TrEMBL record:
Residues 1253-1351 form the HTH araC/xylS-type domain. Keywords: ATP-binding, Kinase, Nucleotide-binding, Phosphoprotein, Transcription, Transcription regulation, Transferase, Two-component regulatory system. PANTHER family: HYBRID SIGNAL TRANSDUCTION HISTIDINE KINASE C, TWO-COMPONENT HISTIDINE KINASE. It comes from Thalassomonas actiniarum. Residues 834-1047 form the Histidine kinase domain. The keyword Nucleotide-binding applies. The modification 4-aspartylphosphate is found at residue 1140. The keyword Transmembrane helix does not apply. It holds the Pfam family HATPase_c. One of its GO terms (molecular function) is phosphorelay sensor kinase activity. Residues 1092-1207 form the Response regulatory domain. This is histidine kinase.
Amino acid sequence: MPVFAAENILFEQANMVTSANVGSVFSIIEDKPGYLWLGSSEGLFKYDGYEFKRYLGDDSYRSLHQDPDGTLWALGSRSMKKYRPETDSFEVFSLPGDEHKLLSGFPHPQAMVQTADASLWFFAGGGQVLQYQKTDDRWRRYALFPQNSGRETLPSVPLITRKGRLLLAIGPELFTYDAVSDTFNLLLTLDQAGVSITVLEEETSGALLLGSNRGLYRYLIGTGEMLHYQALPVKTQPGKAISSNLVTRILTDKRQNIWVGTKDGLNLFDPHSGTFHRIRHPRETKVGEFVQTLAQDRSGNLWLSGLSGLYYYAPGKMRFVIEAANPDDPHSLSHPSPWSILFDSRQRLWLGTYGGGLNVKAGNDKTYRRYRHNSSNRNSLSDMSVMWMLEDSRQNIWLGTRRGLNLYREQSDDFKHFYFAPENSDAPVNKIFSLLEQEENILWLATQGGVVRTEFTADDHALPEMATHQVFLPGEVVYHIWMSSEQEIWAGTQSGLYRLNNQGQVIKHYQGEAKVAGNLSGNMVNQVYQDKKGTIWVGTENGLNKYLPQQDTFEFIPLFGRGTLAGVQNLLEDANGLLWLVTSSRGLIVMDTDKEQVLAHYTRSEGFTFAVTLHALAPDGRIYLGTLNQGLVSFYPRASREAQQIQLTRIRLDDNEILPAPGGRFYVKGDSAGDNRQEQMSAQAFAHNSKNLAFQFSNFEYARGRSVEYQYKLEGFDEQWREAPVISRLATYTNLSPGHYSFIARARLPMGRWSETRFDFFIEYPVWRSWWAYSGYLVALGVFVYLGGRVQTRVLKKRNRALEQKIALRTGQITEKNKEITALLASKNRFYSNISHEFRTPLMVMLIPIEKILASNPANKGQWQAAYHQGQRLVKMVEHLIEFANQDKKAAAVNTQYPLDSAIRQLCEAYAGMADDKAIAFHLDIQVITPQILLTRDCLEQVLGNLITNAIKYTPAKGKVRVTVTEEDAILKLAVADTGYGIAPQYQQQVFERFSRIDNPEHGQAEGIGIGLAIVKEQVELNQGSITLSSEPGKGSCFTVTLPVIAGNEGGGELSSRSTGRLDSALAAEGVAAAGDIAADVARAQDKEKEKLLIVEDNPDLRRLLSQELGSAFHCLSAKDGAEGIALAERELPDLIISDVMMPNKNGFELCQSVKQSPLTCHIPVILLTAKGDKASKMTGWQCEADDYIGKPFDIRELNCRIDNLINSRKKLAQVHKLRFLSGQTPQGHAGGEAPLLSGSDANLPLPERFIEDIKAVVEQGYTQAEFSINDMAGGLYMSSRQLQRKTKAILQISPSEYLKQFRLQQAKVYLQQNMQAASVAHRVGFSSPAYFGSCFKAQYGQTPVQYQQSCVDGQQLACR
């Protein structure tokens, strides 16, 4: 019996031959690389499993031969050609008749063989034979029959046996070649008349098979027995005889099966029984026709050529056994759509169908027993659709149908029914899709109405009875149910996957969103399966999912790539741990769960043409498939053999084709069709300018080419394997960089192993990237660097000069800009100074009268206090303005200690009058705990002041304004609420921005520039507080400020009297005391001559006010600017000058400097009054020798005190000078001629002392003359007599005439000490008469000149002095 005679042998038509127009195929041969060559009526073709390439079309090629060297020979009807792999072309092979005369006239060869000694044998008709010995290049010619023997037309049929023996059949005779005698000897002759041998074949046993036109002969060489097999009528011996007596081809395949082709089809010959098995096929296949050729490739595929085309048989393909439903056969399947399969412990096959009832078959039976639903038999099946079957641990068979649960009763061979909605057998809960057993007597059911858990009670011998049942997930359509190894129930529904514990409580509901990672790929869950390793797999309408227990999520397994979905209907694990998947549209899939890789995909190319509904694994390893209307399909899964060795079939380099040849050689083919010149490549090196490189490959799986999986990778370029399409099998690369590469291609069949091929090549480096090119580059680079350095140096020098010019120009521009900016800053500072001066002066004019009014205790004292307080606030604002103008960087905030309650009340009282003017009800509510807190300077004044001002400003007449101050949890909250116009929500954040104004046409535009609330916010944030606004248009607004409370004893800070000190000092003086002081000043002024004051002030109001305030005690002179003040001071020589700083013509600094540098006025003290109270301005004043510096506004009493102090100090100084003069001392020395009082020249003396020296020098020159007068003294000092009179009086407290008299008397004392006569001394010192001299001398010294002279003589000089 043949090895696979029992298999379903199926020859399929090779459609690729039809599409390629190959014609009628006479010969098929597979060469060493693996190509299939076909000689046909249309020429010669090469096939790589996917594409045909035509080589020869000039002849009909009936015989192909490949010698042991791999050289291919093609024998046509008119020519013989030899294949050249280096050119991928054929060349005509002609016998060298010109060189060897014995070859002349030799007929065209019909066949050829090569013997073991490498001799080539050529055979022509009529027994003509040629031998060519390659070793010595010698030809021999044999003629088995004499000429004109009548056998010239008989074909020669050669055969090389396994032992290397050459046999040749001609007609009925068989010859053998004897190498020793170099002759052909007759071996046997067929004795049947008209017989002619058509084909020779040798069995593995050594027996010869001789095909003829009279049947098949089998010659047993050992015994010499000849067996003859002929065709017989079918009725005589059906299926045992050969199909025809004309044997055309004989083939012994790799599995020792003998195939015999005849005129009427193909036979499988069994030499042991001598019988033939005819290969019958459907009528459209047409294998039962004239067999022209038989061949087998390396994969074991059989190729058969008939008159209607080429056919092949692939033993490696999966073989499917189909059991169809036959309505006329009661023992066949009852329905063509099996829906459930069960193999029980008694080796029975249970097959439930969808609409055809139940089929049961015992292990060795070939027929089925049918069970159907019979409405008249209550013990029949409850429904014709059996959806699931289960054998429990007690070997009970349970059937889930579309109308209840059935229990098969073995003894009575019938069924017991269970319903979970007995009142309605068609209820959804009675439609069962799957079953499982939790433990003995506990079943779980997946139904159309939810999950059912039922318990049964039964003893060991009785049938189970349903005790209780519970329905979980009511209303859910549950398709499948599974119990995991953790005793958890997994229920697949149309709305996702439910996970329940074994009591039916839902643990989690998993739903599908394909685009969300971790979710199921779909909501329609068809089946849940846990493999032997514990992994849970879930099949949905969109694909396969793997459960990840650690993350409690799912991973989508792409079976055909990320973008392709394939619904998974059923899951099954075989004995090898492989997972078999039934898909909705992609056939049957086998997956390796460890690698998560598809191993096999059974499609139509593998003969899989079924619409599968389920699959099951039989105990013997066979897999059963339930199909839709195609019956029951079964097969044995077999591991695929290793694929044929993959090879490169084509390499394309730009326009050139590189041909792989035997021995690992490669040839570059010409780029034109007529160019046959070839260049052999010594190494796989490609030019650097190669742009496009393409590889094509094949593994020569002719019958299963569509099932092969191809991948490729270019090492040095690709990081991962790439998939190659089966049709093209092409890998293309462009613009590869120079270097070494390895191209690797691999292929495998389903469930098979990979086979690989490698092609190493090298992309040459261009000439400009060779080592000597780099050496040249290095030299050129050195020269270039040298020359470039020189050029660059020149360029850099030139650029440096240009840059220096540009920098100089830019520096000049920056300097100019800096000057402009400096001028602008100076202008800004001058502006702030001027504006502050303009503010302070009128403020002082206002505050001084108010202070006097407050000192008199008026009846409306509260209003005057408010006015005074607001004035002080304006003064502080001016101070802030000046500080802002002078500061270069933001200074740290200085905290000030506030008496909280009194400060707030005082601030609010200041605005009460403003509220009264608009008839606004102003309320204050203070509830604070901390008596004093630390805040930044003027924080309360600016925050509350601006908020209250805005509240009154934007509240209409007769409105309300309420100020609420509370303290809670160390937080001070200040709230100012009004019933004003309100602020729309879109503007509430805008109001805190600088210069932000909200236009309100309905209520008009209030005065202001929009900076108050910005200042409030800055102050609040500076104190780490916050401000909020709640407002509604038409109802009012409420600003709430929260500030942290820092008690006065908790932090540093200066105790400032700016808020209340000046007002308190003004109010502290009692009216009576103030009146007494004024009366005392008046009385003192009456008792003495009034001192003269010069008031220099450009503001007429302030000038007039100062004159009025100081006029009671002093004689006041006034000037409107500095120039007028200087002139008036030189003319009047006042006792003190009070001057403003910022004035037209000459400012206060210039006036002070002019006064102090003038000898005429240098003795006059100067007080500067100014709004510029900054340190720099004060330093300027001191440098101008100002005697005092008072900022505006000032206290008038303070000014009085400072005036008195300066005048008194000047008087005391004048008294000192007078005493020195009267005692005879001078500025150069002490009395008695001791050390000098002043050192240095007169130019270095202070101006008052210099004046004393000057007047002394003038008097020394003219005192001896009696007519020397005051006018002469004034003329010598270049001043008027009046100016001399006032200056001498101011510096020495004596008049000029008194000074002259005292000077003459002092000089007289000197002469008297020299014993001069008194009369002579009188005339010498300038007295007009000695008598007058004597009276003056005695009045001054208490002695007459003579007495004084006598006392000096007596040694009483000390007393004289």
